[in-house]
Design brief:
CATH class of the largest domain: Mainly Alpha
Structural class: alpha/beta
Helix content: 55-70%
Shape: elongated
CATH topology of the largest domain: Zinc Finger, Delta Prime, domain 3
Strand content: 5-15%
Strand order of the largest sheet: 2-3-4-1-5
Number of domains: 3
CATH architecture of the largest domain: Up-down Bundle
Largest sheet: 5 strands, parallel
Distance between the termini: 61 Å
Length: 311
């Protein structure tokens, strides 16, 4: 039997792989006949001989093959002599992280002849349901507004979301989790282009700032997420400029703010391009636009463009 697991959502992909391995161990003497193969250097003849050998106690094997898609020799030989694998009582599991070309013949063969499952990145309602279920595992609940804030901060990176959920649930052991806990405990992810966008705004290069924002949108990033990232970074600039004006040494800035060193360095440089009053004015504008978006008075895309034009 052939199983094929693949996709860009590596978190759920790993979960499914662990689930299969644990189930196999429970039913086959602790996984005595479990074997892993690195696909890049896998020899087809070696694998063929493996499935033709009877396992100890005549128990079926679980053979896990990770990333054979860059092994042209293996794929070519497998396609020419695949019948022994299809007829085998052993479980042959192909495992591939990331995107695969739809033109790949080996990929299309596996989709036709295996039990396959694709793990695409979660979006929208599916992502929200996943986050809610993760909180339920810790016997906690999260308000809708806080859930939105968490997803805005982190996106659909399930690895980081799972860590943040565990951290928040440990902190808030009673009651419903609100926006306050998310803002207190979670540091938003910052894309390098967000720094570049802020640089463009500071230099009054509105054309470049708009171009960078549209590059984010073309990649499928939500405009409200981008607005939140800009909000986060301007708040950093305000905090750091205030600390510097109060003569707090550079080496204490990370300790005082809880921000990573690379964010501190970049923010320190950017904060020097604005006066304190200008930063406060921009930050107030961002907050006003976010509020209008949430009340449905303006679209998030228009809010972004308005911010660039008015700075």
């Amino acid at each position: 039997m052939i199983i094929f697991l693949f996709g860009s959502d590596t978190y759920r992909l790993h979960q499914k792989l662990r689930e299969i391995i644990e189930k196999y161990k429970k039913t086959s003497q602790g996984g005595l006949n479990l074997k892993f193969y690195e696909g890049k250097n896998l020899n087809f003849k070696e694998l063929l001989e493996e499935i033709r050998q009877n396992s100890m106690f005549n128990k079926r094997k679980l053979l896990i093959l990770q990333d054979v898609f860059n092994n042209s020799s293996f794929k070519e030989k497998f396609l020419k002599n695949h019948q022994p694998f299809i007829e085998s009582k052993d479980i042959i599991l192909f495992y591939k992280e990331g995107e695969i070309s739809q033109k790949d013949g080996f990929f299309n063969f596996l989709k036709k002849k295996s039990k396959f499952q694709e793990f695409k990145p979660l979006e929208g309602r599916e992502l929200k349901r996943w986050v809610q279920k993760e909180f339920e595992k810790y016997k906690t609940r999260i308000k809708d507004s806080a859930l939105e804030r968490l997803i805005t901060y982190i996106g659909n990176d399930l690895w980081q979301l799972s860590n943040e959920i565990k951290k928040i649930a440990s902190y808030k052991k009673e009651g419903v989790i609100g926006e306050r806990e998310v803002e207190l405990l979670v540091t938003p992810k910052i894309e390098i282009n967000i720094f570049q966008t802020i640089d463009s705004l500071a230099s009054k290069d509105k054309k470049r700032a708009l171009k960078l924002l549209h590059q984010h949108l073309e990649k499928g990033e939500h405009p409200l997420y981008l607005l939140s990232m800009i909000n986060f970074q301007f708040r950093n600039l305000l905090i750091i400029k205030d600390l510097v004006e109060r003569n707090v040494p550079f080496y204490l800035l990370s300790q005082k703010t809880g921000l990573p060193h690379y964010v501190i360095r970049k923010s320190l440089s950017q904060s020097q391009k604005f006066t304190m009053e200008r930063l406060k004015s921009i930050y107030r504008k961002i907050l006003q636009l976010e509020l209008k978006v949430k009340k449905g008075k303006i679209s998030s895309t228009l809010a972004l463009e308005s911010l660039v034009v008015e700075i």
